[in-house]
Design brief:
Elements: H1 2-22, H2 26-99, H3 106-137, E1 145-148, H4 149-166, E2 169-173, E3 180-183, H5 185-201, E4 207-215, E5 221-227, H6 234-237, H7 249-254, H8 261-271, E6 274-281, E7 285-292
Parallel strand pairs: 2-4
Antiparallel strand pairs: 1-3, 4-5, 5-7, 6-7
Helix pairs in contact: 1-2, 2-3, 3-8, 4-5, 5-8
């Protein structure tokens, strides 16, 4: 800023000096001097005001971003409150019913206790997913490891195969041996578990889920989880990775979903500098892709 002002002052002085030497008529000298000074002052004003305008624009952008973040925070808190309230209300209601005498009937008592256990487990999953999402958003990552994708997927399948068998779904690992990614292995497993469990939950009985990986023409790794399930309508695809967004709320609650799984996937993918997207058709299944940059 100081350099610009100095340049303008030097130019005005030099120009006035040259005009004084070239023009003899006094009134013409004064007129030209006035014009030169006016132009110089205009440039000076522009150079002084321009950064202030730019700062105002940046300030407005920051304020707008803060407003959006605050709106997102309020929406998140409202959603969490609603999601927590539902199982808590159910648990409280069944406990009160048992306290009012229903506990005397062994059949009713057993039924209500089973429902309370299911709701408590759902509440636990919701709290855990909320904490995981909060931790991921803070991007606190320490470990960076070389991860063999096939071995990691094999390990995941071993853990969640009982869920697949219960749903009569076959898990097929088609990842080549020589595929690796670098990053936090726990986060990678968390991302893949969510995708595979999601595919299992929305598959039809005797369906199959494939986990594949390959390098594209640009040499970028792409991992996909493909199922033969119920599929997703095109209207729902854009909002699929939003927090607490459910395509089928009744089915999601039935299979134990918290509505945060795919949001967690999206945030973990970002930690790996990767992008996640989905292709799906109703009745034909879905394919979730994680493309590493």
């Amino acid at each position: 800023m100081k350099i610009r002002c100095l340049i303008i002052a030097i130019l005005i002085t030099a120009l006035n000096f040259v005009l004084s030497l070239c023009i003899e008529t006094l009134w013409l000298k004064l007129l030209l001097n006035f014009c030169v000074i006016a132009i110089g002052m205009s440039l000076l004003y522009y150079w002084l005001v321009s950064p202030i305008r730019e700062m105002k624009k940046q300030l407005k952008a920051v304020e707008e971003e803060n407003r959006q973040l605050e709106a997102m925070r309020k929406e998140f808190v409202a959603n969490v409150t609603h999601e927590l309230k539902t199982p808590l209300t159910s648990i409280t209601g069944f406990i009160e019913t048992l306290q009012n005498g229903a506990a005397e009937d062994p059949e009713i008592r057993t039924k209500f206790i089973d429902i309370i256990a299911i709701e408590a487990a759902r509440l636990k999953r919701l709290i855990e997913d909320t904490l995981v999402l909060s931790e991921i958003e803070r991007k606190v990552e320490i470990l960076s490891e070389q991860i063999q994708v096939k071995a990691a997927i094999d390990s995941i399948i071993t853990v969640i195969n009982p869920i697949a068998k219960e749903n009569q779904v076959s898990l097929i690992n088609e990842v080549p041996e020589d595929i690796y990614v670098r990053g936090n292995e726990d986060r990678f497993r968390q991302m893949m578990v969510n995708l595979i469990e999601n595919a299992i939950k929305y598959s039809n009985p005797k369906g199959r889920v494939w986990i594949k990986a390959k390098l594209d023409q640009e040499g970028k790794l792409r991992i996909c989880v493909q199922d033969e399930g119920i599929g997703i309508s095109e209207d729902n695809l854009e909002r699929l990775f939003e927090r607490f967004y459910r395509v089928d709320k009744s089915r999601s609650r039935k299979v134990g979903g918290t509505g945060l799984g795919l949001s967690i996937v999206k945030h973990i993918a970002a930690l790996f500098d990767a992008e996640v997207h989905v292709e799906s058709k109703l009745g034909e299944g879905s394919t979730f892709y994680v493309k590493f940059k």
